[in-house]
Automatic annotation (TrEMBL):
InterPro entries, alphabetized: Spore_III_AC (IPR009570), Spore_III_AC/AD (IPR025664)
Transmembrane segments: 6-23, 32-52
Keywords: Membrane, Transmembrane, Transmembrane helix
Top-level taxon in the UniProt lineage: Bacteria
Protein name: Stage III sporulation protein AC
Pfam families reported in the protein's UniProt record: SpoIIIAC
Gene name for this UniProt entry: spoIIIAC
């Protein structure tokens, strides 16, 4: 796992947090929620391959 993925996740977190605050202050709580949800789904799509690789490594380690 490279450090680049950590920077990408941090950038998405900062961007989502700024957009969330702007939308909440303008009275658009629904759109703020959807932006947060979209950011979460995007990060999950990036992380799922690493989680899969982790479980494959654990399976090989214990020869299951």
């Amino acid at each position: 796992m490279s450090i680049q993925i950590i920077f990408r996740i941090a950038a998405v977190g900062i961007l989502v947090s700024i957009l969330n605050q702007v939308l909440k202050h303008s009275g658009r709580e629904e759109q703020a929620f959807l932006i947060s949800l979209a950011g979460l789904i995007l990060v999950l799509f990036w992380i799922v391959p690493y989680i899969y690789e982790l479980f494959q490594t654990i399976e090989q380690m214990f020869a299951l």
